[in-house]
């Protein structure tokens, strides 16, 4: 496989796992859809300037575009992903003694309504606490599509997540998120930068036991009722 075909495949897989069409990626990158199509097919010799534009549209660094973390090109955010209602895939737990709020999401956010539901529940819990009082532990390890592969926030979900985090900023002391991939680390860093919560946020990906251990250490805890290392 030549370098143009290989790089085109890379763009296609990151776009697919973000729930973006070629049209959406092209719009976000300020490029023509036919140009994106040609790049994905390996027919275009993309410039470094346009690589930077595509990387920014995908919310990743240029270096990550060339990383070894790879995914399938199967489009995520298909209707079949949402057979199980979001309310059954979202859980949370509050430890009043430790002032620690943990929540996890299995599967995908279908869009605005799912993020707004999570936001209403989490912010509703937070209002019982003061400014900068709560530590937050987020578990996105199982935010995966039905093919078992990782996904990241779609553009619509990311935009709503920014609004959620802007509300969370008032109450949170520290936010630690367990991620399903390095791709998600980039994705969440972008959202946190947009919301202003980045100085409080740490997004982690690695071996499961190490990842959870690091989160516990950052939060000064030894265990959590909801979020544990997988066996």
Quick structural overview:
With 231 residues, this protein is α/β, with parallel strands linked by helices. 46% of the residues lie in helices and 13% in strands.
The fraction of residues in strands falls at 5-15%
Strand order of the largest sheet: 1-2-3-4-5
**What's the end-to-end separation, in Å?**
38 Å
Helix content: 40-55%
Task: Please tally the helical runs, counting DSSP H or I stretches of 4 or more residues.
Answer: 10
The succession of helices and strands, N to C, reads HHHHHHEEHEHEHEH
**Largest sheet features:** 5 strands, mixed
Average pLDDT number = 96
State the shape.
Answer: elongated
Rg of Cα set: 18 Å
Segments where pLDDT lies below 50 for 5+ residues? Answer: none
Counting DSSP E segments of at least 2 residues, the number of strands comes to 5
Structural class: alpha/beta
Question: Can you lay out the helices and strands and say which pair or pack?
Answer:
Blueprint lengths: L2 H15 L4 H8 L3 H8 L7 H10 L4 H4 L20 H4 E6 L4 E6 L6 H15 L7 E6 L15 H17 E7 L3 H14 L5 E4 L3 H12 L12
Helix pairs in contact: 2-3, 2-4, 7-8, 8-9
């Amino acid at each position: 496989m030549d370098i143009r075909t290989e790089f085109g495949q890379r763009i296609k897989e990151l776009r697919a796992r973000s729930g973006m069409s070629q049209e959406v990626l092209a719009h976000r990158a300020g490029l023509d859809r036919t140009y994106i199509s040609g790049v994905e097919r390996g027919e275009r010799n993309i410039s470094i300037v346009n690589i930077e534009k595509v990387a920014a549209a995908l919310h990743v660094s240029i270096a990550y575009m060339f990383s070894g973390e790879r995914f399938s090109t199967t489009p995520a955010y298909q209707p079949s992903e949402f057979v199980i209602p979001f309310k059954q895939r979202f859980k949370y737990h509050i430890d009043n003694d430790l002032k620690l709020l943990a929540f996890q999401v299995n599967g995908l956010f279908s869009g605005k309504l799912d993020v707004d539901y999570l936001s209403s529940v989490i912010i509703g819990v937070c209002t019982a606490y003061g400014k900068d009082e709560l530590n937050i532990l987020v578990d996105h390890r199982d935010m995966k599509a039905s093919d078992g592969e990782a996904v990241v926030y779609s553009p619509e979900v990311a935009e709503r997540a920014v609004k959620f985090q802007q509300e969370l900023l008032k109450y949170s002391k520290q936010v630690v998120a367990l991620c399903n991939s390095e791709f998600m680390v980039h994705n969440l860093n972008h959202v946190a930068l947009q919301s202003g919560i980045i100085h409080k946020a740490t997004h982690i990906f690695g071996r499961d036991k190490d990842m959870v251990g690091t989160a516990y250490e950052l939060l000064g805890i030894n265990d959590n009722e909801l979020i544990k290392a997988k066996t």
